[in-house]
Write a structure and sequence with these properties.
This protein is mainly beta and 129 residues long. The protein contains 1 helix and 10 strands; from the N terminus they run αββββββββββ. It is globular, with a radius of gyration of 15 Å.
């Protein structure tokens, strides 16, 4: 195996914690004004009570030309270290509007190469099949 084990310390400390990642049956589109930032029918929805569900969109369906990577970073003991991008067409409102776990812990490998957006910084439209 070419990958080094990277277990989540959060799940080790709290094995009863439940985070699910499932395919979303439909299409999710992310906009900043009239500019489409992302659109995909291969979205994953992450559910982590008590937080609202979050859509994770594959990198291949995100227009990275509309984004600028920032220095901002956060850490989740369950998912790993998150990197952030600003949505350029949204101006100041789009600062750090997208995040991704580029090297998530093993338990959250399903969200690798996927980005998520803050719904208060961009418009997220989810259309079920």
């Amino acid at each position: 195996m070419d990958q080094i084990a990277n277990p989540s310390p959060g799940f080790q400390r709290n094995p009863g914690k439940v985070i699910t990642v499932e395919p979303y049956k439909g299409t999710v589109t992310v906009r900043a004004g009239d500019v489409i930032i992302a659109s995909s029918n291969k979205v994953k929805v992450l559910t982590e009570p008590p937080y609202p569900p979050v859509f994770y969109i594959p990198f291949g369906d995100i227009d990275f030309k509309q984004l600028g990577k920032t220095e901002h970073a956060t850490h989740c003991p369950y998912k790993g270290d998150a990197s952030y991008w600003s949505v350029l067409p949204a101006g100041d409102a789009g600062k750090d509007a997208m995040w991704a776990y580029e090297r998530p812990f093993d338990e959250m490998a399903d969200i690798r190469d996927h980005g998520a957006f803050y719904p208060n910084k961009v418009t997220i439209e989810a259309t079920p099949d």
